[in-house]
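Form 7-S
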Amino acid sequence: MTTTAVRPPVGGLLRDWRQRRRLSQLELATEAGVSARHLSFVETGRARPSRDMVLHLAEQLEVPLRERNELLLAAGFAPAFGHRGLDHPDMAAVTRALDLVLRAYEPYPALVVDRAWELVMANATVALLTEGAAAHLLEPPVNVLRLSLHPDGLAPRIANLPQWRGHVLHRLGREAHLTGDPGLAALHRELAALPGAVDRSTPDGIVVPLRLRTDDGVLSFVSTVTTFGTAVDVTAAELSVEAFLPGDAATAGALRRAAG
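Output:
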């Protein structure tokens, strides 16, 4: 006996995304340039939206590409965005670009992660961050957030762990809410349950640093994130490069010496 999964109606999905973005029907209708009456009919199923309307509303709601495909399928249309693996020939330009960026950041650590925060690529200097982590946390697929907060990972070496935990959990919780991804929500619950305090106070300075204990003393890093701004493929859209740049002159010098 086989069962067929029933997709939720597109109107209900659009309503969920609107509520997740904290918009009223009138606000979304105004931004999208449609009547509030028509939008109401779409959400309740009294009107069937066209393919262009689904994509237009998804754009206004900043729905991720993966979920835009799901909206189209729920409305009875084919997906609009490809979902190729990085080993696909069409993705060669993407992998070359990522490799170029990672190499350009050396001697500073930089890595590529997907939406689930699983490690995709990294430059050689990342080994400085992962030094001493338990083998089971470094077995693929490596989740970099779990690696950073786990007591068998980087956590014992992070000098400002409560502050860093607060930053990571806030960021992950926000992403889980904005994407509606149950996997990210489950990861947030898992990491929040790990031992360690959380400092949610307003930090001093400009950004929250990662202060890591090493043989060269405590090194201070500032993280930056790079994404593909014009991606029309799900895989490319969900990749990001996170670089850990020196937060002070001592850290910059230690990284240059380590590279040499």
